[in-house]
Amino acid sequence: MEHNVAASRLQGTGAHALELDGVARHFGALVALTGITMRIAPGERRAVLGSNGAGKTTLFNAVTGDFLPTAGRIRFFGEDITALAPHERIRRGLRRTYQISQLFTNLSVLDSIYLACRGVSRRRFSLLRPSLSDPNMAQAESIMHVVHLDADRDKLVGTLSHGQQRQLEIALALAGAPRFILFDEPAAGLSPTERRDLVAILNALPKYIGYIIIEHDLDVALRVSEYVSMMHNGRLFKEGTPEEIENDPMVQEIYLGGGHG
Amino acid sequence: MTLAAFTPAAPVRKSWFERLGIGHVLLGAFLLLYPLIASDFFLTTIGGYSMILGMIALSLMLLAGYGGMVSLAQITIAGVAAYVIAIFGENNSNVHGFGWPWWIAAPFGIFLAALFSAMFGWIAVRTEGIYTIMITLAIATASFYFAQQNYTLFNGFPGYSGLRAPEAFGLYWREPRPFYYLCLACAALAYAAVLYGSRSTFGLTLQAIRDNPRRMRAIGYDVTAHKVFAWFLSGLIAGTAGVLLAWFNGRISPGTIAVGPAINILIIAIIGGLRHPIGPFLGAVVVVLMQTFAIDIVGAERFNTLIGLFFLVIVFVSPDGILGLWERFKPSQDRDGWHSRPDGTGV
Ligand SMILES: Nc1ncnc2c1ncn2[C@@H]1O[C@H](COP(=O)(O)OP(=O)(O)OP(=O)(O)O)[C@@H](O)[C@H]1O
Ligand SMILES: [Mg+2]
Q: Do A107 and B342 lie within an 8 Å CB cutoff?
């Protein structure tokens, strides 16, 4: 596994899970992202580290289409998705979570996850009420179980605690057979117990599901990823294994030193 | 992701009667028996008219309550259906009047109204909040002036008169009792459909889009398509009400779809409450009663001031309208049959 990942990363051909070529995003005069070139093999788990404002979330937005990139190409399992609408990318197996929870405040927990399961199925449109035997409902129940929200199934999302809302964020990304997930600081604001749960959930994902995780907490990041990319001022400036990153003097200066915050 | 076997708690099966709710049963019985106690005036001018306006306000409640899209063009959409039956059916204005039978003209009018609604929606969904109100107000205003100035299609200022509910199934539907029951049947159907639909997959989708369109895209939904379809459904309800309105008034003219009536629909919906589909009908009854009787007391001049004041008081005291007042003061939870949840998803 390790070997394959390394090999295909170097080749730059074949169907990568995600392939970015010179991706850039400008906000007016502000260059939030520039010259991002990145290849991620299927099933690879990658951490992206970088100080505040480095462009990590902007990178995710470009990949999912929340904001289109100003320049560059993005390929998902070999297919060029640069110009696709966000929901089309999702239907191809891409998922994401948000740094600031984006949830349905007035829906119940179960209904939210149910919609997420249904959204990528062909039967996403129906004027009927979900039946008791609806497979999407059964799937929603099991995902709800994975993120420990069973007890709150009928609660309105707006009444959940911060930690529970973060769990629900993850549940929405796990719904409906994802192939690749972008996690944007899933551990932010979680208690140590909740963090342990999160690490367990990520490590229990099926091997074929790859992901990128943005995480300020190095401890969490290094336990759930096998390769690390460092970002600064909208650029990728270093990639390597967790050990290489931890020992890199430049990284220590910019990120682990005073650069943070 | 070990998807552990999870057995859902066996759902409690309720009888249809329990699920209907005592509130619905009582209300239904009252409305069915109402013709026994009501004069023709109360039957048609109060009862029938309230249900027609209630349906138009319901079409707004669907968009605003579940979809978060406040439209001022609902009376315009109803007007499309009304003009269609005037032009394609029979009228006595000696313009057009192709004489199509009602069972073709009415469904065609309703369908065309829904198409126009979807088109308005398609224009409006690019906007949000106050801009949706502005753009639908612009559509309503432009439609009014167009209908008033165009004689070839809309017969301009006088519009069309001589529109009548048909004779069918051995009944004269323009007579007070049959017309009342016709309005009741349409209103009940629309109400039940919205109530059922609020918990349907589409209903949940619409409410989720209202709460967070960005996330909906990120779980695979085409937000624009779903919103436009909500406008289409809303148009079916408004269009049905439009046909009834034309039969009720016996005519359709630009005055019916002017800006005043357009705002009136919004006032009805907000006075009644946008969280449950019964709200628009409550609001319609209140406004129709006020319109009918307050005019005698305060005079037509001051009537709008009165409605305006009442509107302010309601909005001030209870942002959820009369429904909200009821929720606050009702004797106990669940004694009635509405079971309204704070999200407006209803039973
Ligand atoms: N919608 C936007 N409009 C204008 N500027 C933006 C927008 N989104 C991000 N930016 C800017 O782009 C830069 C990168 O922001 P981004 O959110 O990607 O950083 P980040 O690495 O995710 O930081 P953090 O660790 O704080 O989440 C910042 O300077 C930010 O102010
Ligand atoms: Mg960020």
A: no
